[in-house]
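Human:
Care to share another protein and its fold?

Assistant:
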Amino acid sequence: MSHDLAGRTATVAVAGGDESTATIVTFTNVLVSGYVEICKSQVTGAGLDGQSFSYTVQGAMGFAASANILVGSCSNPIYAPAGHVNITEGGPSAFVTSIATMPSDRLLDSDLADGTATYDDAFWRKRPDWTYGPDRPHPQ
């Protein structure tokens, strides 16, 4: 009898009777997706030129991807379901000194010690940026 798409609700009339008079309600969804790029940078003097870092990306509906990125460059755009996306830098011990996103208000959570970030992939292309520095050098 009525529906609210934003609220994902429907109000229907259910007729009395057996299974042959069942009221059928169908919700149809469409996948909303976006892109993420992961960039790797270093502060002056970190000594990471030419090194590559591995990242895992996890998102809604079991989405998973990985990327290897050279210091000073970014991954290709990674097509991912919109929503919260978790990105983790691999390695024995990530000595990350900063994590940032563009736009900056999309960073939801980060953990420098673990080298992880959670950001909101709501129709934007973001570039989480991991930075190493002399005060927390990456182990060779």
About this structure: The longest strand covers residues 52-58. The chain has one domain: 33-132. The two ends are 65 Å apart (CA to CA).
